[in-house]
Amino acid sequence: MAVFFSHSPEETIHWAEHFAKSLKAGDTVLLEGDMGAGKTVLAKGIARGLGIEAEITSPTYAYINSYEKGAVRLFHFDCYRVTSERQAFELGFADCLEAGGICLVEWSENIRSLLPEHCLKVTIRGEGDGVREIGS
């Protein structure tokens, strides 16, 4: 597992841009970390690395945000408020996972049985304005 220490949101975005170059259609990436650790900042960098210029925001209340740039489709899930896998299924999570795009999933433990067998994982640790430890 490679570990990177980020000293700013800009460094986190830069790391995520490079990580995005390794992704391909159909990949599911679990973004793991505590509340406020920087999972959405990672998502912004990944989107930028995929050439997506749209404003990337947390899908906390929408559950799923989707973005497209040419043939690239990116789905960003926030499962924090998902109370059951049935609810996730009804919200269309399974459809997005099967759509052939790249899926970024926050709080994946809430939809474990819907996830593909093979997922990539990026963990981010840190609080406040301090250094972040990012591992993939």
Can you walk through the features of this model?
With 136 residues, this protein is of the alpha/beta class. The protein has a single domain (3-135), classed as P-loop containing nucleotide triphosphate hydrolases (Rossmann fold). The protein is 25% helix and 27% strand. It has a seven-stranded mixed β-sheet. Strand 3 and strand 4 (72-78) form a beta hairpin. Helix 1 (9-20) packs across helix 2 (39-49). It is globular. The protein starts with a strand and ends with a strand. The mean pLDDT is 91.
Span between N and C termini?
Answer: 6 Å
Full CATH superfamily name: P-loop containing nucleotide triphosphate hydrolases
Give the helix tally.
4
Succession of helices and strands? EHEHEEHHEEE
Low-confidence stretches: none
Q: What's the number of structural domains?
A: 1
Shape: globular
Q: How many individual β-strands?
A: 7
Strand order of the largest sheet: 1-7-6-2-5-4-3
Structural class: alpha/beta
**CATH-defined fold name:** Rossmann fold
Mean pLDDT: 91
Q: What is the CATH top level name? A: Alpha Beta
Can you lay out the helices and strands and say which pair or pack?
Elements: E1 3-6, H1 9-20, E2 28-32, H2 39-49, E3 64-69, E4 72-78, H3 85-90, H4 93-97, E5 102-106, E6 120-125, E7 132-135
Parallel strand pairs: 2-5, 2-6, 4-5
Antiparallel strand pairs: 1-7, 3-4, 6-7
Helix pairs in contact: 1-2
